Request: fold
Amino acid sequence: MTVFLVGGGVDTLRTPGLLDPFLHELARQAGDRQPRLAVVLVDQEGSGERFLPEYLEALGGGVRRDVVPVFVRPDHAVDPDLLNDVDGFVVAGGPTPAYLTGLGEAAGVIRRRVCSGVPYLGFSAGAMVAATDAIAGGHRLGGTEVCPEEWSEGLDAVTLRPGLGLVPFAVDVHAAQAGTLGRTVALVEHGLVARAVAIDEDTCLAVTTPQQPSEQGHVSGSGNAWNVTPDLDGDGTVVLRRHAAHR
Reply:
């Protein structure tokens, strides 16, 4: 299986073929059948239905497949049964806390299906919630601002919540474009997570097993993925590694 983590929403895609590896795995999972694809979107006053066509177009609008729209609505948990019989998962961008709440009851099903070979593609918030310890938002840590407030999801303190458990490192997105790399570094520096990765827009980090270290993942697109780990001397400093996309 592969978990594909895209550092921005569908509207930031510029690199041709960036999503092709996911589509190939989707087709392989389906075999001779028409692929059945779950597309999960937060729906606020019809926003999910409005944005769904954009995601389907990015995934190859003319490709024949059965699409299962899964809308995450306020105070309404997603029924896990909707996700039992699909060949791939796409989780869109939007408000990260809403996805974490809405997918909470379905996390076990998604994790089991992905571990059995079903590919997962997360855009922006959909990439963030793939982590075991997911960044819900926030812009301050230890009393210091670590990223712009506009990317805080309305939270003051940087907050971690249980995610889907598909990758063992925290994920942040819009790294270069939104200045969230500082939040990624601060999480590791303060010992809240053992590893974190920040991904640029129009950039995809593909992780081929749930427990694969991020530095062994494949980066594609026009940007970078930044891998942050503690320094071995244990003094609170971190090691920051830039992984340029394979173009």
